[in-house]
Amino acid sequence: MNKANSSQERMEKMLSLTKRRGFVFPSSEIYGGFAAVYDYGHYGALLKNNIRDAWLKHMVQLRDDVVGLDSAIFMHPTTWKASGHIDSFDDPQIDCRVCNTRMRADHILESFGISADKATLEFINEELDKLRAEKKLKCTNCGSTDITPAKRFSLMVKSNLGSPTDALSEENVVYLRPETCGGIYLEYKNTLDSTRMKLPFGIAQVGKAFRNEIVARQFIFRTREFEQMEMQYFLHPSEMDQKFNEWKQTRWNWYLDYGIPEEKIHWYKHEKLAHYASDAYDIEYNYSILGGFKEVEGIHARGNWDLSQHSKFSGVDLTYFDEKRGEKFIPHIMETSTGLGRQFLMFLDNAFVEEELEGGDVRTVLKLDKRLSPIKAAIFPLLKNRPELVEKAQSVYKDLRESFMCEFDDNGNVGKRYRRQDEIGTPYCITIDFETLENDTVTVRDRDTMKQERMNISDLKTFILTNIN
Ligand code: GAP
Fold first, then answer.
1. Which of 149, 200, 286, 385 stands 20 to 30 A from 334 (CA)?
2. Mean pLDDT of the chain
3. Which residue, of 127, 154, 181, is where some domain finishes?
4. Residue 289 has pLDDT above 50, yes or no
């Protein structure tokens, strides 16, 4: 039975577990913290890297039509002029005049059932005025009704490069990329010229992105520094519908393949689109800790806007000559874009279970897909004070860790060690006992069933590798 019920209760438990077991720490805690930025500890970094590697495997390794890229965070500032980010990558901000709490006006309107997705500032302020007149517009922190009108707040994070003396000059302003796909567009031509790719093909990359989010209070769901896993697929416009649908299915299957139940995800279709886009869907996951469905991934048909703009601003010809069609055109793009932190939170949320055991004890277990688990096997000597058991356990541990992530634990009794490994989602616990010394067999305990089976040490590696891949 899963005991943690309300979203707040689950969030508190999750926060406590992720901090206590070293998955996620608030950034700069010794200086009092730094809002909406987080660090990933040992198990968190391992889990995050496993999700990233699984994504890269599916998006690049297992495909003939997608190649990889790792582009720089800093790019020529004109990149963001061309993409429209400098002029219009912003959110509508309102402030409480009493306690200075900042709020997103579109989120406030949405809480009243008014859709403000991509709405103009004029529309937003008209709707806010109606709420204000009815005394319904209140600060989310102190409840005051003294709220400013909405204004545009740029999400772009500025930095500077160059010598310290001219650091403050406007020409030196560079931006930390707000999305990783900018680098993909800039390397589209080099990729085409340096690989044997022909349209349709994709470029995928994982990397950091930065946004000056107005409100970022939902743990790692919305942060100011985060990682994106994005794939831009370049194609002829006539292929858009077919490829868009294929990629929608491919991405949907990713969630099912990694253990997300179908009833916990759904599609959200964007009704209002950017002027260049023809279709946009989000996959939303029902985050129990956030109290409902929220975006985890976007799939967008972007027309030829991106390459046209970069061609125009750079003066470089980005047209593609299609030999089969005998046609020259600027490729159209469809993208799949997901946040690594949001995937991480989704997998944790889905895996976090509290089970009541016979006798009334409760065990906390992360039922992660085994391919994603930070530690694949934990190796225990039955007793800490018996050197022959410890030595044998060490030798099994040192052998297995050559092939996958393992942990050695001789602290406390075996029951407590099982609990510790359950909490971090370790699929297998291997105990070296006195029988091991006689016949080279060990017990292997399965995280989910809690059943133990005896196995030859010589079979362990193959058994675990088969189950974690
Ligand atoms: N290139 C398209 C793009 O960036 P987006 O909908 O703004 O589209 C894509 O972002 C994905 O990036 C989202 O679905 C989400 O998973 C993730 N993401 C966006 N902003 C984020 C933030 N502040 N914190 C964490 N993840 C974020």
1. 286
2. 94
3. 154
4. yes
